């Protein structure tokens, strides 16, 4: 059922540093489909430990920091940069739309003017009130959606946003966003209802947000974003067995949607670790030797924090609403639970 999709050259330092190169995929990384998990990555030939398997750039990325004015972790808003914007050298929005919006310098601010122009009025009008009314999580979710729409806007105008489509890569650009899993059926009715309200209040097509999509389409994008977005942390996620002494992945500094990296399924015994580089590009690295035909999985959470089967499954249920069917969980589960899940039951 698997097909070879990606043929690329070997990664080079120059490639990893190039901002216009949308993504890099190891030639032995292939896409296939699993009847339960959906799309997945597999390898077609042996992959030695420590090999870089994927470098993907975000289609939408937002900073996630407390007190942006005091924080050196704020990222540059220019998608072609996304480096840290230290407080003493950063440039802010002349329209003072939001303290979390910054650029590492005036060159990046100038290059990002079209993309930021799409979000600026919306942020100025709604950011403070959404934050105070609904809190940081919902504000972040809505801002990621606005930034997805902003990237789509730039891509449609065919401007040099650094997000241009490569015809050989079906997961890149807005087409990649459209291919993400997640729909109204994935999420409980009360969440979908609340998101429907958000769309009507804050995300409708209009002069403030000229995206040309219907409310139903925007709601679908939220359902996809919630099933696929990544938190960015200063240290890698997914080493197992957990090294001793335990070193956590650190404090989240950004949230992002990666069209290709989103194809990776979760395992509680992952063979791939993931971490964003200094440009916010998501890098997948083999954390052990991987054999031909094996699935490549990352961990969606910090394995040092959730150790037993129940807490791991509960975490995934909370975050993504699925029952983990990775090798480790299936091995650890009592037989009657396994039969119940196979019959379509859901763990509560
Ligand atoms: C980020 S997407 C991964 C790619 C996805 N399989 C696809 O088809 O696009 C996350 C979704 O994949 C599925 N998934 C990922 N890991 C899984 C696992 N360990 N067990 C069961 N389903 C899994 C769940 O449906 C989850 O909501």
Automatic annotation (TrEMBL):
Sequence ranges assigned to domain SET in this UniProt record: 27-301
Q: Please give the superkingdom of this protein's source.
A: Eukaryota
Please name the Pfam families in this protein's record. SET
Tell me the SMART domains matching this sequence: SET
The protein here is known as SET domain-containing protein
């Amino acid at each position: 059922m698997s097909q070879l999709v990606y043929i690329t050259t070997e990664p080079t330092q120059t490639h990893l540093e190039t901002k216009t190169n949308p993504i890099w995929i190891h030639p032995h990384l292939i896409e296939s489909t699993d009847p339960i998990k959906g799309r997945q990555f597999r390898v077609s030939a042996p992959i030695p430990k420590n090999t870089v398997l994927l470098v993907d750039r975000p289609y939408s990325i937002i900073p996630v920091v407390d007190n942006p004015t005091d924080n050196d972790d704020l990222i540059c808003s220019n998608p072609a940069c996304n480096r840290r914007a230290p407080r003493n050298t950063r440039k802010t929005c002349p329209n003072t739309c939001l303290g979390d919006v910054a650029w590492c310098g005036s060159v990046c601010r100038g290059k990002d003017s079209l993309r930021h122009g799409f979000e600026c009025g919306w942020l100025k009008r709604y950011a403070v009130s959404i934050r105070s009314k609904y809190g940081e999580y919902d504000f972040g979710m809505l801002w990621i959606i606005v930034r997805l729409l902003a990237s789509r806007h730039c891509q449609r105008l065919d401007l040099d946003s650094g997000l241009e489509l490569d015809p050989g890569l079906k997961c890149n650009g807005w087409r990649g966003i459209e291919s993400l899993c997640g729909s109204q059926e994935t999420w409980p009715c009360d969440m979908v209802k609340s998101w429907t309200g958000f769309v009507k209040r804050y995300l409708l097509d209009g002069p403030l947000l000229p995206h040309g999509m219907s409310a139903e389409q925007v709601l679908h994008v939220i359902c996809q974003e919630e099933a696929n977005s990544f938190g960015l942390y200063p240290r890698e996620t997914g080493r197992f067995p957990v090294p001793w002494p335990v070193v956590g992945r650190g404090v989240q500094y950004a949230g992002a949607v990666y069209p290709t990296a989103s194809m990776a399924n979760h395992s509680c015994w992952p063979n791939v670790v993931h971490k964003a580089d200094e440009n916010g590009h998501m890098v997948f690295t083999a954390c052990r030797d991987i054999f031909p035909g094996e699935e490549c999985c990352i961990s969606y959470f910090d394995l040092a924090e959730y150790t037993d089967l129940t807490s791991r499954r509960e975490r995934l249920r909370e975050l993504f609403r699925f029952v983990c069917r990775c090798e480790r969980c299936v091995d650890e589960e009592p037989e009657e639970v396994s039969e119940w899940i196979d019959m379509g039951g859901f763990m509560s």
